[in-house]
Structure formats: structure tokens, C-alpha cells
Design goal:
eight-stranded parallel barrel; eight-stranded parallel β-barrel; 19 helices; TIM Barrel; 20% strand
């Protein structure tokens, strides 16, 4: 059972030093722009180069986050960012968008590429697909159990990285639009405002319009440190600490704890808890106990504990960890007029220094004193790992202790300098492709997504170009509709759902359906024989990623609804594109159920309501009433573009129906078919924003 890499956050230069000095094996940090924590103290290209030099000198790897959704106008800047990472000699890029992956492979193919948790990889097939796409590591979504993690590790052809400590998003990784639509700051683009930490109350009996006060979307931080040995046994290659917006003291405390547990030693649990928590921690996902005990908020008592713990945590990185073995070779002596000290490391670096003074004949064996002097490596990253002594004629002789100390300092300074030399990655010439723009002003065809067959009016089914139903509803779809019906695969799959879905697709192969909607890269692996369309879960926002999905066999795709119309216009991949024209937008998918704070899952009717601090009601639905399904939280106000359909620069406009009655569905479809204004409160979403 090999020890995993301990991967620590470095939100700024001080945190970088704390993580390294306390013993992290690798750090992850953001280049200014294009990362999922834009408000962290990210690094400029020059600062990144300095950070890489500092880390590599100490045997620490550097992973750079380029893990946000990007738009067409940003692709050239993203290419420049990849070049900057390559020039800095960083070890890996954490990539989300397939455009980022393509740019890395085209510009700097020797850079390692890690699939971000934002890609929502939950399953063995997801890991296999990332490997096929050229990734070297998969960073799993945070919602997996130990058994699910183990299954991925056993099947994965690439390394597996798992979060073990830090903040838990309520939403399934990479599938949250709450901040974008409620606060105008996209979490998928690194600017999350954290609205889920505000009051969202699932309590029964709230009076109409009464603000909710409970925080039923706020999870405690995760803490898997007590389970590290189990994760090691499962085959996890890297254990990751969340927290680029936290303090250096936080990074040091958690890194120190992880090192201790991996070594089979006790750790300071109180310090880890006190340095930051939200009324304690949870391991609910890992242990399959994702219930109401997972929820918590940061209290004043928590903040006071942090203030009290900070000085103790700061001591953890006051001095460097001596982690780099240094081997000494000593030769010369009295007859040679001086001594030569060579220091080398295990990476092939080698330096030599010479004594300034002539040694004098020694009265006794000087070697024990020399070894003691050379072993005093405190304040450096080096630890003495042997001395090969070859004295000349007359022996080494005597030199004062100060002379040996100066020889050691000079040798280690030179060795550290040599280890700090940056080795850039080779960069290939790359010309950014040009992509056609979509024609504006044409009326898109209409399609609709329904929760079930009963929701779809028969007369509307005749007029719609496509009907979209969840695959769970396949058997209820009338044969007459199947020729224009697409079966939508779940955006996330936990446990054995992936295998069951693959088997179901195989069984439905000859049932006459028009195709399948894939919502996760994993689903590209078990949909052979189906005409594929990309759904919301693929998060397509730019022409390069759209073209890449088209090259993988996707025959049409729904653009991510955070995308403004101006950005949509740039996406014309040669296959039909689609955009939502109506629907209560799914703000987040969550495996932890907010309703479990107030009700027993076994008695749940399959959903409920959350009330925010302004008195607005958010519908919650469950994919598996009475069981461990996935919940969706919907925006209370629907998106509507019915009288502006010609402004959508796409081929197909999709109306997404969720909890509407059949009668209400008929009314809304009539409005859309006739390009009429909406008949109640609505939103244009982010379509007219400047992104």
C-alpha cells in the first residue's frame, strides 16, 4: 500500500510556502484568470515561474488550474495561459472544458493533464473516457462513497485523485448554476458567490411569503482524514485538500494531519477542527450516511476557535521540512592543501565546493565532527543521507567548525540553486482555428423535454421536432412518438446506475427511438449504435469544445444556459445547436437531500419546497423517491423567450417542462408556437448579459 500524494491548496504565495514547509507533496494554484477560484490570490506568469522554481527545488510538484468554462472570445487568452504554464515548467494542468484539453495537447503535449472535478466524473467509465481523451489523472467528484471510489480505482487506466478535506458544495460538482442565476456570478467560471450558504428553509408550515431562516443547503466541511488509510488501500493516487480561499495556517494544519495518518501516526484532531469548521465535519458521502447530519453553518464559536488555534498552526510552517536527501562526498586533506565537498541529490544534480583554508594536521580522527557539521541541515529542505569519505595523504586534517559549516552552507545553497532551475515544456506552434458564426434571425425549430409521457399533449407532439424524455420513461412512450423521441440519460450516475443504464440502452436499441441525450463524458462509452445529442450536463459554451464533441460523434448539442446570445452565436460546430427557450432552470443537482433536515426519506412524496430569505419558493424534485437518488433544485421563475425566438442563434429551441400540469404545458406550448409574450412572471436568464 503506497502512500498517496498529499496535494495542498496555494491560494497565494504565503499559503504556497506554508503548504510546502509543512510537507505537501504537490500544490495546486491558479493562474490569473481561467480558474475556479478567481477571487483567490492567483499567480501571474512571472509569479508562477517563481513558484515552480521554489517548489521543484524542494521536490514538490505544481498543478495549475485552468478549470473554468470559457467563451469564444477567451480562447486566444486561454492558449496564452497554456503557453505561460508550459514556460513556467509546471507539472500539470487541471482542465475542465474540452477546449482547454485540446489547447494543452496542441501547444504543450508534455504537460500532464488532470480532469477537473468540474467534469462530474463519478464512475469507472468516466475515468476510462478521460484516459481516451488524453488525460493523465481523474479528479473525482466529491459525492462518492468509498465503495464507489474503490470501483473507479480498480477500473481506471489513469491516476485517481480524491478530495479529503475542505468545503463541500451542496451541488454535485460541475452541475451548479445557482450563483450565476441568483447572483450574476458564475461558479462554473470561478466567481461563485456562495448563495447556498444563505437561508434556504425546507421546514413545513411556513406561511406564504414568510422568509425561510434555516440553512438547508449549507453542508459542513468534509473530513476524510480518519479514512486516509482506507483510501490508500482503495488505490487513490492523490488526496486533495480544498481551500485556496483559506489561510496558510489551515493548509499547514491539514497537510500535517494527512502526513501523520498516512504514516500510521496520530494527529492533532482538535487543531484541524479548530482551524476551520462549520459546526464540525462530515464524512457522509464517503460512508453512505448522506443525511441531515451533513448540514451545518459557520458560527461565531467556530470563528473564535480559529482565532485561538492560528498561532499553534503557524508553528507548523515556521521552518522548512527537511525532505530532500543529500549525499556528500568528501576528498582531499592536509597534503592536498584543502578539501573538496560534493553534494548530490537523487535527481542527478551535483555541486562541488572547496575549503578556503588549508587543513592542519589533526590530533584525533576528525570524521565524527565533520559528519556532525555536515548533518546540520536545519533551515534547508535537505536531509543528510550519507557521507562517502576519501581522505588524501595525511588525512582530512583539522578545520575549525565554522569552516565546515561554511562548506555545508555553500554546497547546499548551490544545490538548491541548481534544483531551482526551471525546465520549460517544449511548445509547438499552434494557430487558433477559425470557426463560423451562427446565422441570427432565423426561427429555430421547437423541441420539448417532458418529465413523463402524460405531461406531453398529443396535439403538440405532432408539431414538435423532437420530444425528449428521461430514459426511465422509455417504456411509456407511445410508438408513434418514438421516431422523434430522444432518451435523456441522467446528468449524474452513482453506484450501479451506470451499469443499469448501459444495459437499458442496449435493450432499447431496436425500439425505434431517434437517439439519446448524453450528459456526461462517460456516456460516450456505452452508447454505440445510438444517434447522440449533447445535453445540459456537457456544459458546452464555446466552438472549440462543441467541435470536439462533434468529432466524438455528438450530432447536436444543447448549449449551457449561462451562455449569452452573443457567445452562442459563435458556436456553429457543423451539427445542430440548441438553447432553452422555456423552463424552470435546474439551479443545482445534489446528492445530499435538503428535505432530510425536516422529513423522513421513506415518507417523502418525491420532492418538496425550499423557501429563501426573501420568501421565494424553490421546487425540489427527487429522482428516486424513498431512496438515495439525486435531487434537483429549480429556479422559482421560469426562463421564457417565446416572442424572441428569432434572437436565439441556434437551430433548435427547447422548452423544458418539469412539474407543470398537462394543461399548463399546453398553454405554454401554444404561447411558444404563436410567439406570444409570457402570461406571468418570467426571466430572460443570462441571455442578454455581456459574456
Amino acid at each position: 500500500m503506497s502512500r498517496p500524494e498529499i496535494l495542498a491548496p496555494a491560494g497565494n504565495r504565503e499559503m504556497l510556502g506554508a503548504a510546502v514547509f509543512s510537507g505537501a507533496d504537490a500544490v495546486y494554484l491558479g493562474l490569473t484568470g481561467f480558474n475556479a477560484r478567481r477571487t483567490a490570490g492567483n499567480f501571474t506568469p512571472d509569479e508562477l515561474r517563481e513558484a515552480v522554481a521554489f517548489c521543484h527545488a524542494r521536490g514538490v510538484k505544481v498543478h495549475v488550474t485552468l478549470n473554468t468554462l470559457v467563451y469564444d472570445r477567451e480562447l486566444s487568452g486561454l492558449a496564452d495561459a497554456v503557453r505561460a504554464v508550459a514556460a513556467a515548467g509546471a507539472d500539470a494542468v487541471i482542465a475542465d472544458d474540452l477546449a482547454t484539453a485540446q489547447l494543452v495537447k496542441s501547444i504543450a503535449p508534455t504537460l500532464h493533464m488532470h480532469g477537473s472535478t468540474q467534469m462530474s466524473i463519478h464512475t469507472p467509465e468516466g475515468a476510462k473516457e478521460l484516459a481516451a481523451l488524453g488525460y493523465d489523472r481523474v479528479i473525482l467528484a466529491r459525492e462518492l462513497s468509498l465503495e464507489e471510489i474503490r470501483a473507479v480505482c480498480e477500473a481506471s487506466p489513469i491516476e485517481v485523485e480524491v478530495f479529503v478535506h475542505g468545503a463541500l458544495c451542496m451541488s454535485v460538482s460541475g452541475q451548479c448554476m445557482m450563483s450565476a442565476f441568483l447572483g450574476g456570478r458564475s461558479g462554473n467560471r470561478g466567481a461563485c458567490a456562495g448563495p447556498c450558504r444563505l437561508p434556504f428553509d425546507a421546514s413545513a408550515g411556513l406561511k406564504l411569503g414568510q422568509p425561510g431562516r434555516a440553512c438547508h443547503l449549507s453542508l459542513k466541511d468534509m473530513d476524510y482524514i480518519p479514512h486516509l488509510r482506507e483510501l490508500m488501500d482503495a488505490g487513490v493516487a492523490s488526496v486533495k485538500i480544498e481551500g485556496r480561499l483559506r489561510t496558510p495556517e489551515y493548509a499547514a494544519a491539514v497537510v500535517t494531519a494527512c502526513r501523520a495518518v498516512c504514516a500510521g501516526q496520530p494527529y492533532d484532531e482538535k487543531l484541524v477542527r479548530d482551524i476551520f469548521s462549520r459546526s464540525g465535519f462530515t464524512d457522509g458521502y464517503l460512508t453512505n450516511r448522506n443525511d441531515g447530519k451533513m448540514f451545518g453553518v459557520r458560527t461565531e464559536a467556530d470563528a473564535a476557535a480559529t482565532r485561538a488555534a492560528t498561532p499553534k498552526a503557524r508553528e507548523l510552517f515556521r521552518r522548512e521540512l527537511q525532505r530532500v536527501p543529500v549525499h556528500y562526498e568528501l576528498s582531499g586533506g592536509v597534503e592536498d592543501g584543502g578539501v573538496k565537498l560534493t553534494a548530490r541529490d537523487d535527481d542527478g544534480h551535483r555541486v562541488s565546493v572547496y575549503s578556503a583554508d588549508e587543513p592542519q594536521p589533526a590530533q584525533k580522527d576528525p570524521l565524527p565532527g565533520i559528519e556532525r557539521a555536515l548533518g546540520k541541515t536545519g533551515g534547508t529542505p535537505f536531509a543528510m543521507d550519507g557521507l562517502a569519505a576519501e581522505p588524501g595523504e595525511g588525512g582530512f586534517g583539522f578545520l575549525p567548525g565554522a569552516a565546515w559549516n561554511e562548506l555545508r552552507r555553500e554546497a547546499l545553497d548551490k544545490l538548491l540553486e541548481k534544483r531551482s532551475e526551471v525546465t520549460p515544456h517544449a511548445v509547438q506552434a499552434f494557430e487558433m482555428p477559425t470557426y463560423p458564426a451562427h446565422t441570427v434571425g432565423q426561427l429555430p425549430a421547437l423541441a420539448a423535454r417532458f418529465a413523463n409521457a402524460a405531461q406531453c399533449p398529443a396535439e403538440a407532439a405532432e408539431k414538435l421536432q423532437y420530444l425528449i424524455f428521461p430514459i426511465a420513461e422509455a417504456e411509456s412512450i407511445p410508438e408513434a412518438w418514438r421516431g422523434k423521441t430522444l432518451l435523456e440519460l441522467p446528468r449524474v450516475m452513482f453506484g450501479r446506475l451506470e451499469q443499469k443504464t448501459a444495459a437499458r440502452l442496449d435493450a432499447l436499441q431496436d425500439a425505434g427511438f431517434a437517439g439519446a441525450v448524453v450528459n456526461n463524458p462517460a456516456q460516450l462509452r456505452y452508447t454505440d449504435g445510438w444517434t447522440l445529442y449533447g445535453g445540459l450536463g456537457l456544459n458546452v459554451t464555446n466552438p472549440m469544445s462543441a467541435a470536439r464533441y462533434a468529432s466524438l460523434g455528438v450530432q447536436g448539442m444543447l448549449l449551457q444556459p449561462e451562455t449569452a446570445l452573443t457567445a452562442m452565436q459563435a458556436v456553429a460546430p457543423g451539427v445542430p445547436t440548441a438553447a432553452l427557450c422555456y423552463g424552470h432552470l435546474p439551479l443545482m443537482l445534489t446528492r445530499a437531500c435538503p428535505l432530510r433536515n425536516v422529513r423522513d426519506c421513506g415518507k417523502c412524496p418525491g420532492g418538496g419546497t425550499l423557501r429563501d430569505r426573501k420568501g421565494r419558493d424553490f421546487t425540489v424534485t427527487c429522482s428516486a423517491p424513498g431512496g438515495a437518488g439525486v435531487r434537483t433544485v429549480f429556479n422559482p421563475v421560469p426562463l421564457y423567450m417565446g416572442e424572441r425566438l428569432r434572437e436565439l442563434p441556434v437551430d433548435v429551441a427547447v422548452a423544458a417542462f418539469t412539474t407543470e400540469t398537462p394543461a399548463r404545458v399546453s398553454q405554454i406550448l401554444d404561447l411558444l408556437f404563436n410567439a406570444q409574450p409570457f402570461d406571468s412572471e418570467f426571466t430572460r436568464g443570462l441571455y442578454y448579459t455581456n459574456n
